């Protein structure tokens, strides 16, 4: 019964995340982190960061990859079963993509009728900056841990993600290579992996 409840909770949370995420995988990372780490405490901050890193390196959209890995980790840890973990992956992934699938079917049907509508343009004008904010929040969440005490927030760096000065140097190098050097993200990821192996 507890396992069934876990599956239902997993499906519900990822269905809601899929329904209210606009802007792709990076925009949904903050929502996923909020539910699985902060609300339900299914996984730790450091585990979530590891999952995001693996999701970034593996083929496919990062949001869907993250849901797949989170579903597996949550259920396999709770049940101790590899097969149940796979079922958790399938549940989280299906729940995440189902709202988009339904919405796209509706949009295909009605988009041509409303694409020149002033109301549609107004909604899109408000959604674009919202997407940028969600993507920015995802980056901050991976770096800064926020705790609330009597209504006052306190901020601290997630030490598991940046244990020493070498980690900060890798962060700075990756940012510089990506932002100023316009280096291909795949090369940045591979370079970070190689340097991590050499340094640690």
Task: Describe the protein's architecture and organization.
It is built from eight helices and two strands. By secondary structure, the chain is mostly helical. It folds into two domains: 157 residues, no CATH class; 38 residues. A two-stranded antiparallel ribbon has the order 1-2. Strand 1 and strand 2 form a beta hairpin.
Concise overview:
This protein has 200 residues and is mainly α. The chain contains 8 helices and 2 strands. A two-stranded antiparallel ribbon has the order 1-2.
Which structural class is indicated by helix and strand composition? mainly alpha
Average pLDDT, rounded to a whole number, is 82
**Could you tell me the radius of gyration in angstroms?**
19 Å
Please state roughly what percent of the residues sit in beta strands, choosing from under 5%, 5-15%, 15-25%, 25-35%, 35-45% or over 45%: 5-15%
Helix content: over 70%
Main sheet: strand order: 1-2
Query: In total, how many domains does the architecture comprise?
Result: 2
Order of helices and strands: HHHHHHEEHH
Choose one word for the global shape: globular
């Amino acid at each position: 019964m507890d396992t069934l409840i876990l599956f239902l909770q997993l499906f519900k949370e990822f269905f809601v995340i899929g329904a209210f995420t606009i802007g792709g995988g990076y925009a949904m990372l903050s929502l996923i982190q909020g539910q699985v780490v902060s609300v339900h405490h299914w996984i730790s901050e450091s585990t979530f960061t590891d999952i995001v890193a693996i999701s970034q390196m593996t083929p496919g959209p990062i949001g869907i990859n993250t849901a797949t890995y989170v579903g597996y980790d949550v259920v396999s840890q709770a049940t101790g079963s590899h097969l149940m973990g796979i079922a958790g992956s399938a549940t989280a992934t299906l729940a995440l993509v189902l709202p988009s699938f339904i919405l796209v079917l509706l949009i295909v049907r009605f988009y041509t009728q409303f694409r020149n509508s002033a109301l549609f343009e107004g909604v899109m004008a408000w959604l674009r900056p919202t997407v940028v904010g969600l993507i920015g929040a995802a980056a901050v969440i991976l770096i800064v841990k926020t705790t609330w005490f009597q209504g006052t927030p306190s901020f601290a760096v997630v030490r598991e993600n940046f244990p020493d000065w070498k980690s900060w140097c890798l962060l700075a190098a990756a940012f510089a290579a990506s932002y100023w050097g316009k280096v291909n993200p795949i090369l940045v990821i591979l370079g970070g992996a190689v340097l991590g192996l050499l340094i640690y």
